[in-house]
Design the sequence.
């Protein structure tokens, strides 16, 4: 199947835009790859330090037999349910390496925080920046420079992008990502959301709410909604950086350990065969476009409009939100997974999962098939589904959807477009995810109410003032503007705690929307939200010009976000300043002082909110 012309056009434009930076990056990759193995050129003391802790037989394999040594970078901790299974992975991987004449070492650990724990709490202000801290930690782990290849153990929101950014700075190393899978299904995401809305209204108490949350999040594995963590896994499949079909096998399933061992065999196959497939070559412009398409086709997390900009830049590739929007116009929505539907990721996997999606996109010419992957048989391998037969892993073609209420073919999708829209106007540039928003909510016009924090909005809801404003302003609704939430202001926290109160008011028939320079969770959906507004208010963005009472238009169909203020008045308005109380409290306590440099150096959301790339 020929590549879709829009896909080809966007890819060419990215290649042209990135020519200088990508050329420079690949020169560095090739220079590093051309060096002799560092173990052979290191001093004896260096070598002794590097392998002092290894069993004698492993030392012989590395030093005398010159076998491959694989560096493992792990995000293990047992606070994150998704990462708890990684506790035993290093032993499994080391055992598999020895079976093939190789060795493996845990090169280092990286921090991994759970956004579910920190939602609405001060710790959430470190969430986005933890991505770059993880990238730096990955670099520290690999900088011992004694490894022939690497395995990355991570799953969740900022962890995978951080590991990927870090790995791309060691682009000469063959690298495979190793996930742990989702938890089995508990209380449905729909039922959980209903209880949250009841709690927001005060109709159920803490005991009932806690019982519902415990029933939803109940064991090891990722959360079962299709948020940022599970979107990460879909994108890694589309980039060819996983063992095919490994994303959504539950931690306790028989396939899981076999797939983990296969990850070691896969990375060793690259080192043994001398097939030049280091991660810096695998992740090229076509690979990045494939990831963008997979995100759109599955209704994935809006967080990736920040993260994958940063990931691409780590490989010398420059993408922007125009690229996403143009792809979204031609990429069909093939999946309905909560919050874009009622199914969870286990039902998605049962219906065909990533293998089905990728096979459909390849057949429709909506993914590049002529790309390097960690598998010798290329992108076609990722359109297949693994299963166990007589104790061995086998892969079958994806075939037909197992449930057309969850997965549909590209010829008969849920929607002809991917459900992400770029919004532009006198407010700047932002994005909106419309795949989960009812169609009658894609366009609204209502007065703004400006809030300086999410706590202010919560207080207005709880007091009844927000509903009263909806009733009395003649527009039956409010556009809630929450500013000072960008990367430079406070680290750009997710504002997921605002979803239940806004959803309650929308459920009562009011026209509600959120406009912010902050982020929303990958699990947020049914309330229209213009997010990631750039430039942010603290950087002098137009968001700082909005005043409560300004009439606002949000139109996802036409891509418009506009404050209906005359051009003369708008241009003459002074920018609001961050309140002194926020200045005093932002970045203080719970270690936030340590990230002052991150806030100071952070680029805009559309530039990936990078703290390590200074323009």
Sequence:
């Amino acid at each position: 199947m020929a590549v879709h012309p829009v896909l080809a056009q966007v890819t060419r434009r990215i290649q042209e835009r990135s020519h200088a930076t990508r050329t420079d990056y690949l020169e560095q990759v090739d220079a590093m790859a051309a060096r002799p193995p560092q173990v052979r050129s290191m001093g004896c003391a260096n070598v002794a330090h590097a392998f002092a802790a290894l069993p004698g037989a492993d030392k012989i394999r590395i030093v005398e037999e010159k076998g491959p040594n694989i560096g493992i970078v792990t995000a293990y901790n047992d606070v994150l349910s998704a990462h708890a299974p990684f506790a035993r992975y290093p032993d499994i991987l080391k055992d598999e390496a020895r079976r093939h004449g190789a060795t493996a070492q845990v090169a280092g650990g990286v921090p991994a925080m759970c956004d579910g724990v920190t939602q609405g709490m001060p710790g959430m202000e470190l969430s986005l920046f933890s991505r770059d801290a993880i990238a730096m930690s990955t670099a520290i782990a690999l900088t011992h420079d004694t490894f022939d290849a690497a395995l990355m153990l991570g799953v969740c929101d900022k962890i995978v992008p951080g590991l990927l950014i870090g790995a791309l700075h060691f682009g000469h190393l063959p690298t495979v990502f190793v996930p742990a899978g989702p938890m089995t299904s508990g209380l449905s995401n729909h039922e959980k959301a209903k209880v949250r809305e009841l709690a927001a209204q005060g109709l159920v108490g803490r005991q009932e709410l806690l019982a519902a949350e415990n029933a939803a999040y109940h064991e090891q594995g990722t959360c079962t909604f299709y948020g940022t963590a599970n979107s990460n896994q879909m994108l890694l499949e589309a980039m060819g950086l996983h063992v095919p079909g490994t994303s959504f096998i539950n931690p306790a399933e028989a396939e899981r350990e076999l797939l983990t061992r296969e990850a070691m065999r896969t990375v060793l196959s690259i080192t043994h065969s001398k097939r030049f497939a280091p991660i810096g070559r695998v992740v090229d412009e076509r690979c990045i476009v494939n990831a963008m398409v997979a995100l759109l086709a599955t209704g994935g997390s809006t967080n990736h409009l920040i993260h994958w900009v940063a990931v691409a830049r780590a490989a010398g590739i420059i993408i922007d939100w125009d690229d996403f929007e143009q792809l979204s116009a031609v990429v069909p929505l093939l999946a309905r997974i909560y919050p874009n539907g009622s199914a969870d990721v286990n039902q998605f996997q049962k219906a065909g999962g990533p293998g089905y999606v990728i096979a459909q996109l390849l057949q429709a010419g909506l993914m590049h098939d002529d790309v390097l992957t960690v598998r010798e048989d290329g992108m076609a391998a990722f359109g297949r589904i693994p299963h166990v037969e007589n104790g061995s892993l086998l892969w079958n073609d994806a075939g037909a959807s197992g449930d057309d209420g969850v997965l549909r073919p590209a010829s008969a999708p849920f929607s002809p477009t991917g459900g992400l829209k770029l919004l532009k106007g006198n407010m700047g540039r932002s994005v909106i995810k419309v795949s989960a928003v009812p169609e009658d909510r894609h366009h609204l016009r209502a007065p703004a109410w400006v809030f300086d924090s999410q706590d202010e909005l919560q207080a207005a809801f709880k007091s009844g003032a927000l509903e009263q404003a909806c009733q009395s302003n003649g527009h039956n609704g409010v556009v809630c503007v929450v500013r000072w939430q960008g990367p430079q202001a406070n680290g750009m926290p997710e504002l997921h705690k605002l979803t239940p109160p806004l959803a309650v008011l929308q459920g009562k028939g009011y026209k509600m929307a959120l406009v912010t320079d902050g982020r929303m969770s990958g699990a947020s959906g049914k309330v229209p939200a213009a997010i990631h507004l750039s430039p942010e208010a603290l950087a002098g963005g137009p968001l700082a010009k909005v005043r409560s009472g300004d009439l606002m238009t949000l139109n996802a169909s036409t891509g418009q976000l506009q404050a209906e203020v005359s051009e003369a008045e708008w241009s003459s308005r002074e920018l609001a300043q961050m309140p002194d109380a926020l200045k005093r409290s932002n970045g203080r306590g719970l270690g936030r002082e340590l990230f002052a440099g991150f806030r100071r150096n952070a680029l805009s959301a559309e530039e990936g909110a990078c703290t390590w790339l200074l323009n």
Notes: The radius of gyration is 24 Å. The chain has 26 helices and 14 strands. Residues 421-607 form a domain with the Glucose Oxidase; domain 1 fold (CATH 3.50.30.80).
